[in-house]
Amino acid sequence: QVQLVESGGGLVQAGGSLSLSCAASGGTFRTNAMGWSRQAPGKEHEFVAAISSTGGSTYYSDSVKGRFTISRDNAKNTMYLHMKSLKPEDTAVYFCAAGASTMGIRGGDGIRYWGKGTLVTVSS
């Protein structure tokens, strides 16, 4: 069983930057693909980014490509999401996810573990 804990959310002005972390425990972090999804108020979960178990492959949704960077440190059992040029429409609860493959995380149907989320609010 893998436990995922997000941190780093908060309030930021449009155009600003913010970094999120996801700390994993209780399992073999390095064997899991990881990713981030988000849910804005009144909207469905949206895939944001995914990274392979080794960190060699990354994927992004079109809405964040070029602005967000996903990375991981397997020695620290931690995944990161560096966000820049933030927009009000990026406001959402951001969730950390783990699964067998980046494809499963991207599609949402292959997620084995979820974090509880961290709120990111971007003011205009």
Folded structure, characterized:
The chain is built from one helix and eleven strands. The mean pLDDT is 95. The strands form two sheets. Strands 2, 4, 5, 6, 9, 10 and 11 form a seven-stranded mixed β-sheet that branches. It has a four-stranded antiparallel β-sheet with strand order 1-3-8-7, with no helix packed on it. The longest helix is centred in the C-terminal third of the chain and has 6 residues, at 102-107. It has one helix at 102-107, and strands spanning 3-7, 10-13, 18-25, 33-39, 45-51, 58-60, 68-73, 78-83, 92-99, 111-114, 118-123. With 124 residues, it is mainly beta.
Keywords:
124 residues; mainly beta; seven-stranded mixed β-sheet; 1 helix; 11 strands
Put the structure in a nutshell.
By secondary structure, the chain is mainly beta. It contains one helix and eleven strands; from the N terminus they run E-E-E-E-E-E-E-E-E-H-E-E. A hairpin with a 4-residue loop joins strand 7 (68-73) and strand 8 (78-83).
What's the topology here?
Layout (H helix, E strand, L loop, with lengths): L2 E5 L2 E4 L4 E8 L7 E7 L5 E7 L6 E3 L7 E6 L4 E6 L8 E8 L2 H6 L3 E4 L3 E6 L1
Parallel strand pairs: 2-11
Antiparallel strand pairs: 1-3, 3-8, 4-5, 4-9, 5-6, 7-8, 9-10, 9-11
